[in-house]
Design a protein that fits this description.
The complex is a heterodimer of chains A (about 325) and B (about 325). With about 325 residues, chain A is an alpha/beta fold. In chain A, the strands form five sheets. In chain A, strands 1, 2, 5, 6, 7, 8 and 19 form a seven-stranded mixed beta sheet that branches. The longest helix of chain A is centred in the C-terminal third of the chain and has 21 residues. In chain B, helix 1 packs parallel to helix 7 and helix 5 runs parallel beside helix 6. Chain B is about 20% helix and about 25% strand. In chain B, strand 15 and strand 16 form a beta hairpin. Chain B is an alpha/beta fold. Chain B is built from seven helices and 19 strands. Classes of the chains: A alpha/beta (about 325), B alpha/beta (about 325). The interface between A and B is large, with 58 and 55 residues.
Chain lengths: ~325, ~325
Amino acid sequence: MLEFKLAPSQPEVRPPEEEVYDLIILGGGPAALTAAIYAGRARIHTLVIAGPLPGGQPANIEMVENFPGFPEGIDGPDLARRFVAQAERFGARVLPDSVTGVDLSIRPFIVRTDRATYRAHTLIIAMGAVPRRLGVPGEDRFFGRGVSTCATCDGFFYRDKRVVVVGGGDSAIMEGLYLTRFAREVVVVHRRDRLRATQIHQERAFANPKMRFVWDSVVEEILGEKTVTGVRVRNLKTGETSVIEADGVFIYIGLDPQTQLFAGQLELDEQGYIVTDRRQRTSVPGVYAAGDIQDPLYRQLVVAAGTGAIAAMEVEKYLEMYPQNHQG
Amino acid sequence: MIGGVSLLGTSVYDLIVIGGGPAGATAALYGARAGLKTVVIDKGLTAGAAGKAGQIVNFPGLGPISGADLVRRIREQVASFGAEIVTDKVLRVDFSTDPRQVWAGQGVYRGRAVIIATGSMGRGRHLPGEERLIGHGVSYCATCDAAFFQDQAVAVLGNNDEAVEEALTLTRFAARVYFLSPTPDLRASPELARELTAHPQVEIRPSTRVEEILGNERVEAVRVVSPEGEGVLPVAGVFIYLQGNMPVTDFLEEQLPLGEGGCLLVDENFQTAVPGVFAVGDVLCRHLKQAVVAAAEGAVAAMAADRYLHGRAQLRPDWSR
């Protein structure tokens, strides 16, 4: 019999579950869901707290072309749905809740969400890193189809086109240089009158005939009807606005690993990423991390998925070493 | 012709990938998309472990899929981004020159960076019945295939850590695990050996050799010889970890330092002791033998090779290896 409930006006807060999971996976992207596929397959009793948009970053990408195994490319939301379905098929329970706190000082570990409290013998943290956005009109509408935070993913589409890169740090300049392999012109828009990037990258950028610089300026709007046609920029010194025509916009103004909840409980590096070893172990035994939350360098879907698989296999070994904790 | 061998084209590749399985093909995918002039040299679609695998169910986004199909799809993707894929066998290499040189049956390939993704192969000699029943009950990976043996009896052949770990994984699915050790004692760590010995679903048979794997369509039994005599043990699956798999590194002729058993050693960016020469996948020491892990390594190595080629050398990999 189906039971109908009225949607509660406030999030329903459930009491702590008695049940102790073998594994709770925090996050809902490729790293988290690949970990869930491997854990489910290994009969590890697993809960995935995936956040409100299970599937993670690919769910925001119109077309994923560099995930191996999809020769025609795959629609991002479709890839995200496949990850979720596959994890559920192997028995993982996937909740769309958000993690609000963890306690790694007691065992089993405690994970609180906006709705309930859960306990588990092991954790895999795979909540990702969020590229900072500009917060200007047009950005959301064109994100994943003209506005990108990943030149490695999307640079190939801009052969002989003109692109705008926003930012002045190492990522902006290195990725801008990368884009000159494809694009006819790369226009760097930076809010200051000089770059923050390492000297050697600056020298290369200034020597590259395809690179142009627009100083002291911020992007105020991303323009276009069906596709991106340009950006409107404002000069912070003169207050004047102008339009730069472009086919694509790459935003490199920083990245925030989602590690606020773990500060003081796990070792983080100076940029806030979780420190892991080759086996995805963190500074707390039984707690693993995978994907972008521990990877400031490569940030690719398939790399995240690989680390998720490794973390799950390590969890399996860890639980075997402590079978008294393990219900499997 | 130079020195009796044809130089394939006059041009130099940015990136030569040796081996076109999940690791090598994904490396080529990332190389080609980065605009590198890339060639993949591979022995053929079903030459590698993935190509021979039966169903792969845990490749995210795609499973279940046959190993050959997975590899074919990645290669199609590679070709669509302009990399060349040639069917050829690499005979030897010279990493002391710049560009590096790779000798194959059809001639010499020259490249500024090389990614080795040749994988590992089963032992030189197979058990009778083994090859015929690969994917039909014969497996080398419990993580991959244990779930197919729900409530059935399986045999594990081996005596080392890997064999014991895989046997323990199998106990979660199989009703009964016969652990057939060719030696009188286990060559595994004491904790693992204790756990295996104490496990109620495991029966350890020391000094036991498998003479033949029996079955028509699927594995039905193994014929064993032990100090007690010869017999037939009915099992639905046979998991083989005898002498481990052999990494394919013979063509390197000691130009790179090798680990125990001939596997390749790399740093956190999958670079070998020779700058610009990388290695990924099952050819590495202590590899997990999972297609998605191999693919991830391929992607990382290609990005690292790209940085090497473009002088973005001070890769500071907080990638925390």
